[in-house]
Amino acid sequence: MCSGSRNRGGGSHPVVFESPEPKSALELSLAKASVFSMGHALYVSGLIKYAEIWSLPKMRKQTTGRWGNPARQPEFWEALAEVGLTEESLAEVPRELSRPMAGAWMCEDVRRRLFDLDVSFVTDLRLTMTVLSRMRGPVYYPRAVPDYSWQNLFRGFFHVRNHAVSGVPFTDPIWPQDQLESRSGIYHTGKIYRYGFPRM
Asked: Residue 135 — φ and ψ, nearest 5°?
């Protein structure tokens, strides 16, 4: 905490300045990270209308019932064609993803704290599918044979800190703000506002 002084009626009074709370190791490691999530990319593309974007299990359940069964894969590709994506177009790796990219998968406890973390979600469905279909452990390999199985695409949230990709934070109106506000507990200390994420 820092202090200063100013004159009021000839006297000297301390002025207290709020100092930001120290960031945890988790917050520092995820600062400015970009997250690849199939559910979030599907939501922004308009292919799912109401995504419970705070919960990976709920997004997986919502979409699995529609496209997850292998027998329904043709319907999934038909939906992708509506937004201009085909297996042929996805076979061409975008220039910004032409190199291997290492990152990490978010564990459940981290996913529950999304409102606390300075992360952004990649909204481009083509980029998201390119990365998630070519993962080998925590590393994306552009030359890997893509796996478009539902289990693989919805494996989790993969985050990277790489200048080649960028995302959109939850504060952006592209996300359903009413839904986010209803699920988040907002508290503050002085002028420092933080978003608490409820355990589920």
From this structure: -80, 140
